[in-house]
Amino acid sequence: MSELEQAQQNPATLADQPLAPPQPPSQCCDEPLLFAMRDNYHAFSMPLTTIMGCVAIAEARGILPPLPESWWVEVGNAYNWPIQQWQQAGAATLQPASE
Q1: pTM of the model
Q2: Which end of the chain is more exposed for a tag (fewer CB within 10 A), N or C?
């Protein structure tokens, strides 16, 4: 079985409760929210930063419809996330390989 097929056979799902830091991110840690996840083999967390990076990449690839630029600016300013870098990473994967 390929690695992709193995990954598809082991989907992550949300656990019963998301894990939020007890204090604001600036006082506690860099993540505003951690999602408690569970797959077929173990429990783990996924930070909101990772999810938002995935959304930005999917949007850049055209898999998700575009979100308003003002929304991205507001989110980027609120959390100081590298949104433009994520979007560029998603767009870069669409470029043809150089010969």
Answers
A1: 0.64
A2: C
